[in-house]
Amino acid sequence: MDGSFLASSRGPPWLPAAAVDARRLAYWGQVFFFVVMIVSAIFGIISLFMLVFDRAGGGGTIYLLVTAVVNFIILYIMKPTVFDHIDQGRFSEASDHMLIYGVLGIIFGIIPGIFLIIAFVRLQEVFQPQYQPYPPSQIQTTQPSEPAVTPSRPSPPQQPTPPPTAAPEKPKHPEMVKCKKCGVQYPAFMRTCPNCGETRD
After folding, report:
1. Is the model's pLDDT at 3 over the cut of 70?
2. What angle do CA 173, 178, 179 make, to 5 degrees?
3. Is the distance from CB of 36 to CB of 111 less than 8 angstroms?
4. What is the pLDDT of residue 1?
5. Neighbours of 73 (CB within 10 A)
6. HSE of 136 in the Cβ direction (CA atoms, 13 Å)?
């Protein structure tokens, strides 16, 4: 299975965890597309010979041959439209193609389609906003103090209260910008959107 149209099982090391899982599931979907293509082609040819010699019904033969052709086409175009997009960080395009191939895979082979639908669902986590909780050292709780009992005496004249001291600065997080094309937020130091590749003005 070292054909040039087949993707490798590993992607670049910088991929987010959701993209790594989606890529792995899509890889197994690709393997099952290959298996279903071979099996349906073999049984399609056998049933075609039986159809010619025995004059049996040809509905199953047509379905098997169409399944082999559809699986071959999906297998051939999956690397440039799914794996290359994931490896380049263009998750939106990869997600769209995964959904289309997943539906076709369910119609023409079931198992590859299930793998691609699960990969599609897993890849959607890349588009969710990432929130980082504050570290425990930054959360300050005030302890209620008991009022001290002091003997009453005349209070001194009021002095002006000093201005409140500035709170300690919080650590700066990188400034985020929103892509005008796809709406994904990414750090401002990046010049292009990691999702769609749109350059920032």
Report:
1. no
2. 135
3. yes
4. 40
5. 15
6. 0
Q: What is the CA radius of gyration of the chain?
A: 30
Give the separation between CA 65 and CA 141, rounded to whole angstroms: 70
Domain that holds residue 95: 17-127
Q: Could you tell me if residue 97 is inside a domain? A: yes
- Angle (CA) 21-29-38 rounded to 5° is 160
pTM of the full structure: 0.61
Taking residue 17's Cβ as centre, other Cβ atoms within 10 Å add up to: 10
Structure tokens at 10: 């590993």
Q: Is residue 111 part of a domain?
A: yes
Q: What is the pLDDT of residues 83-142, one digit of tens each?
A: 999 999 899 999 999 999 999 999 998 999 999 999 999 999 988 876 666 566 655 555
Which among 37, 39, 42, 45 has a CA at the least distance from the CA of 5?
37
Distance of CA 44 to the CA centre of its chain: 36
CA distance 145 to 52: 95
